Amino acid sequence: MLSLHKPARLHNIRLAVLLTTLALVACSTAPPMAKKAEVAKSAEVAGPQVSETGFTLTENVQIDADTRAQYDNAVRQLEQKQYEQGIAALLKVTQSAPTATAPYIDLGIAYGRTGDLDKAVASFTRALEINPRHPIAYNELGLVYRKKGQFAAARASYEKAIALVPDFHFARLNLAILCDLYLADRTCALDNYQAYQQAMPDDKQAAMWMTDLRTRASR
Asked: Is beta strand 49-51 parallel, antiparallel or unpaired with respect to 54-60?
């Protein structure tokens, strides 16, 4: 028998996904009166870097120093669970840098943590309007859809993240859990547990889940 309760299982995955790093590159060389015009029309996102401890996408977009400082402060507030202040600061950043995806993704995560799932969906959707090939946005959107009970939409979102970055092992694990616990799709669950374990062979908890799935499948 699986010894963990389902909420704890999902909570662990949520923490793992939030190891993701989103970065903005500030531009402080413009004279003060020209700062607003320095915001780029589109953001350039460097190729993803996947490691055992996280998933990093670096977004290069020209912003003024004040906006960069405001963004950094907002991130610190979210890390300290000061969600109301962090959300207010991020909304201001989106006004100064409307084509940067990072603030919208951080907003989505913050709204999700406060239980405002509709605003979380809207924030991730806006990030994907800016960059339709953003795997982090798809993965985080999948988490919110799962919380809303929209399991088919969650699956589609995870699958889009994986299609963009097949090695995105946290998205693989989220999809495996969704297929295992909510969709009763054992093939999907096992395939994605195995893909995740190849990237994270020392994750004993995930190995236990996969063993439990195999035991149930053999009955």
From this structure: antiparallel
pLDDT tens, residue by residue, 126-143: 999 999 999 999 999 999
186 near 163, Cβ under 8 Å?
Answer: no
Angle (deg, nearest 10), helices 101-114 and 83-96: 160
- 130: which 2 tokens? 């800016």
Q: What percent of the chain has pLDDT over 70?
A: 74
Amino acid at 213: L
Its pTM stands at: 0.79
**Distance from chain centroid for Cα 135:** 8
Average predicted confidence (pLDDT) for the chain = 79
Using DSSP, state whether 60 is helix, strand or coil: strand
Question: What is the rounded CA–CA span in Å between residue 167 and residue 48?
Answer: 10
